[in-house]
Amino acid sequence: MRVLGVDPGLTRCGVAVVDGGTGRKVTCVAVDTVRTPVDADLASRLLAVSDFVESWLDLHKPDVVAVERVFSQYNVQTAMGTAQAGGVVAVAAARRGLKVEFHTPSEVKAAVTGSGRADKAQVTAMVMRLLSLQERPGTADAADALALAICHIWRAPMRARLAEAEQRAAELARVHKARLAQARKAGGASR
């Protein structure tokens, strides 16, 4: 499975491509950070993020896109910019028919470090170790994008099994309700 991980942001947007192998084996394909000038207008900044992500989607052809979910931030303006950047990434992926999965920061930290409260240094250190990187990714945003991709690779099979189990349970419940209704109907008819 090839995953494009994106840590969305307007000033810095981390982007990474990671391949998942058998078991928990992961390999870094590419990693970078999109930077946009703070003094540029919002539309231009979003376009720059979109153009970069679209070029990576075309170049690296991921199977799925994993984006960090905006959870909560004290600065509303920053949260809005982050959400908008994540939105243009989702649109770019949807245009190509790619599934987009959102992961919370604590989910990503827990998957990669074992603790949902890990700091950026711990996430970067574990990403480097897991991917056997000799040098740090350029920015913390790039490291977070790698972590998002790894998180998705490791959690996607579990999510798929859970969704399958939920579907089976719903089907069993539907069949059971139908049988009960049929039994009540047959019991009422025999009186």
UniProtKB/TrEMBL annotation:
Pfam families: RuvC. It comes from the Bacteria. Homodimer which binds Holliday junction (HJ) DNA. The HJ becomes 2-fold symmetrical on binding to RuvC with unstacked arms; it has a different conformation from HJ DNA in complex with RuvA. In the full resolvosome a probable DNA-RuvA(4)-RuvB(12)-RuvC(2) complex forms which resolves the HJ. GO terms for molecular function: crossover junction DNA endonuclease activity; DNA binding; magnesium ion binding. Mg(2+) 2 binds at E68. It comes from Actinocrispum wychmicini. Binds 2 Mg(2+) ion per subunit. One of its GO terms (cellular component) is cytoplasm. InterPro entries: RNaseH-like_sf (IPR012337), RNaseH_sf (IPR036397), X-over_junc_endoDNase_Mg_BS (IPR020563), X-over_junc_endoDNase_RuvC (IPR002176). This is Crossover junction endodeoxyribonuclease RuvC. It catalyses: Endonucleolytic cleavage at a junction such as a reciprocal single-stranded crossover between two homologous DNA duplexes (Holliday junction). HAMAP family: RuvC. It is an enzyme of class 3 (hydrolase). GO terms for biological process: DNA recombination; DNA repair. Mg(2+) 1 binds at D7, D141. Gene3D superfamilies: Ribonuclease H-like superfamily/Ribonuclease H. Its cofactor is Mg(2+). The active site is at D7, E68, D141. PANTHER family: CROSSOVER JUNCTION ENDODEOXYRIBONUCLEASE RUVC. Keywords: Cytoplasm, DNA damage, DNA recombination, DNA repair, DNA-binding, Endonuclease, Hydrolase, Magnesium, Metal-binding, Nuclease. Its EC number is 3.1.21.10. Its main location: cytoplasm. The RuvA-RuvB-RuvC complex processes Holliday junction (HJ) DNA during genetic recombination and DNA repair. Endonuclease that resolves HJ intermediates. Cleaves cruciform DNA by making single-stranded nicks across the HJ at symmetrical positions within the homologous arms, yielding a 5'-phosphate and a 3'-hydroxyl group; requires a central core of homology in the junction. The consensus cleavage sequence is 5'-(A/T)TT(C/G)-3'. Cleavage occurs on the 3'-side of the TT dinucleotide at the point of strand exchange. It is found in: Cytoplasm. Belongs to the RuvC family.
